[in-house]
Amino acid sequence: MNRRDMLKAVLALLVLAPLQALAAWNRKAFEAEQAEGALQGLGVESEQVSEQIEIIAPQFAENGAVIQIEITSRIPNTESIAIIAEKNPTPLIADFQFTPDAEPFVITRIKMAETADIKVLVKADGRYFSATRHIEVAIGGCG
Amino acid sequence: MATMKLRARLKNGITEVKALIIHPMETGRRLDDAGNTVPAHFIQQITLARNGQTVLEAQWGTGISKDPYLTFRLRDGAAGDRIELRWVDNLGATDTIESAVEAG
Prior knowledge:
The structure holds two protein chains of two kinds.
Chain A: H1 3-20, H2 27-30, H3 35-42, E1 48-49, E2 53-56, E3 60-63, E4 67-73, E5 78-85, E6 92-98, E7 105-110, E8 116-124, E9 127-139
Parallel strand pairs in A: 1-9, 3-9
Antiparallel strand pairs in A: 2-4, 4-7, 5-6, 5-8, 8-9
Chain B: E1 4-11, E2 14-21, E3 43-50, E4 53-60, E5 69-75, E6 82-89, E7 94-100, E8 102-103
């Protein structure tokens, strides 16, 4: 290996190293076109409905392109919170992974193609829990 | 180019982090005025760190709104803690912003 190749190899390592620290993007789950496929992609075999998951979102959304949603999990040892819009072209919107230093809480804004249920899936101690919330959408925002 | 705003405040033993990322979050399904499909361009991963240690990570699909807005809450913390938010999109672009925690 000449000096230039060596330099390139070192640079490539420097650039790639921080990216590799992240888990690979879950293509199977995020590109699934049905909620069921998204759940399979996330590795969910069964889930239990829980009242310990709080979802704050509008009942009626004028604009499906921007819907604010606040999620709090009160389930001990919550590891992750995933958001699924059941009638979006690709239903899985996000999967948030929390360390013990972060509260299992998030506020974000999502797109919805049409009136549908939003399912929030919480993983805690290796088990899955869910809550759903129906949101009526006047103008779809998944363009 | 600033692609993000980040603010972190300590309140009652919780560090509240609010972020706004400027990003098109294109789904790959939208048509432009000429009827051509606008290619997908969306953030796939974000990482939030405090004083260099990752506190949460997320993976996103195309369903997060344009110019993503976020609020997170971190346990404990102190004024002056360094909070860092980094994103990576499907085209490999990335940006990081850092901010110091303000006292409530």
